Automatic annotation (TrEMBL):
The gene is hflX. It is found in: Cytoplasm. Gene3D superfamilies: 6.10.250.2860, GTPase HflX, N-terminal domain, P-loop containing nucleotide triphosphate hydrolases. This is GTPase HflX. Monomer. Associates with the 50S ribosomal subunit. PANTHER family: GTP-BINDING PROTEIN 6-RELATED (PTHR10229:SF0), GTP-BINDING PROTEIN HFLX (PTHR10229). Its main location: cytoplasm. GTPase that associates with the 50S ribosomal subunit and may have a role during protein synthesis or ribosome biogenesis.
Length: 387
């Protein structure tokens, strides 16, 4: 895959494929997959959607549709095929042989992007661990040498030991080493958290679907210069700054976390446990939503799903509907502060524009009320939501 950070490298032309199994979140236009591809430095040249009741065990889409994919790829000059679902190792291998070109699934594509975007030492370690865990399940990917025996005199591992066994042993060793290094980083982060707790700091974490505008909102609130862009996964590493609230006469700790996405690989959720720990340990979550995206209810659901997986579902939340400036006048809400019903519970909601600054004073006021309420109670009674 070409890196978007390499301007002189021509992006690889790719064919996007999605299979509708009747699930409610199926993206028939493959819009999100296209954005993921572009974020990874690839160039979508054609798209193909099809329907199936269940995946084909061998080729995921069946041999007839696989033939159609091969013809379409040849017609448009695609050099790689991207699937919007996760493929089993056997399906991926069989498809590559049938299509005679590389095949990447949604999981590996997200891993590639995370690998390109990680900047901190911890972020790089977490991505590496997730990548190694993925490779450990499919040592038969694109390397023909994995299917050859490496035995005889002078061969590593002794006569008859396959290259795949050697690779698996090497990957297992790398996974163990990476986990040990991550444990040290987690201890350092835990020490920093304990220091904040001793200082009685009120912790606020920004969470939300990727590209909802979390980093832009973070920058607007704390006047920071965290990287923000109109792309998926612009931010991977947690950034924490102090936000002074004059009416409360104190600062709160504000953290910008990695964005969530549909079908986020479980390996990444596990690997990014330390980064997402900022959300788990927060006193309040600002759940940033792209108000201009018609699919925002599904995106809210995906974020709630991940929050549940990492143990942060019971933390008080405020829904911050961002990108108010991108909403047409006919759809603009009459009231910018209300409640949004989610899972049978009313949740506080504010409409803001991180770009123009509209609604930010109301958000600061809400944070002030939260801090003042926390000073006199163990929880925040006014905005607690059992989500």
């Amino acid at each position: 895959m070409g890196s978007p950070d390499s301007p002189h490298v021509q992006p690889t032309p790719v064919l996007l494929v999605g299979v509708d199994f009747g699930l409610p979140h199926f993206d028939g236009e493959l819009e999100e997959l296209g954005l993921l591809a572009e974020t990874a430095g690839l160039k979508p040249v054609a798209r193909l959607s099809c329907k199936r009741k269940v995946p084909d065990a061998a080729l995921f889409v069946g041999s007839g549709k696989a033939d159609e994919i091969r013809m379409l790829a040849q017609m448009h000059g695609a050099q790689e095929v991207l699937f919007d679902q996760a493929l089993s190792p056997a399906q991926q291998r069989n498809l590559e042989r049938h299509l005679d070109m590389p095949v990447t699934d949604r999981t590996l594509l997200i891993l590639e992007i995370f690998g390109q975007r990680a900047r901190s030492h911890e972020g790089k370690l977490q991505v590496e661990l997730a990548r190694l865990q993925y490779l450990a399940t499919r040592l038969v990917r694109r390397w023909s040498h994995l299917e050859r025996q490496r035995g005889g005199i002078g061969a590593r591992g002794g006569p008859g030991e396959t290259q795949i066994e050697l690779d698996r042993r090497m990957i297992d060793k790398a996974i163990k080493s990476t986990r040990e290094r991550l444990v040290k980083v987690k201890k350092q982060r835990a020490t920093q958290r304990r220091q904040r707790e001793r200082q009685d700091v009120f912790n606020v974490s920004l969470v939300g679907y990727t590209n909802a505008g979390k980093s832009t909102l973070f920058n607007a609130l704390v006047k920071a210069k965290a990287y923000a862009a109109d792309q998926l996964f612009a931010t991977l590493d947690t950034t924490t700054r102090q936000l002074y609230l004059s009416d409360a006469r104190q600062s709160v700790s504000l953290s910008d976390t990695v964005g969530f996405i549909r079908d986020l690989p479980h390996g990444l959720i596990d690997a990014f446990q330390a980064t997402l720990q900022e959300a788990v340990d927060a006193d309040l979550l600002l759940h940033v939503v792209d108000a201009s995206n018609p699919d925002f209810p599904e995106q809210i659901a995906q974020v709630q799903k991940v929050l549940t997986e990492i143990g942060a579902a019971d933390i008080p939340q405020v829904l911050v509907f961002n990108k108010l400036d991108a909403i047409g006048s006919e759809l603009r809400p009459a009231v910018l502060q209300d409640e949004y019903e989610w899972d049978g519970q009313p949740v506080p909601r504010l409409f803001v524009s991180a770009r123009s600054g509209e609604g930010l004073p109301a958000l600061r006021q809400l944070l002030t009320e939260s801090v003042l309420a926390a000073k006199g109670a163990d929880k925040i009674p006014d905005i607690h939501a059992d989500m």
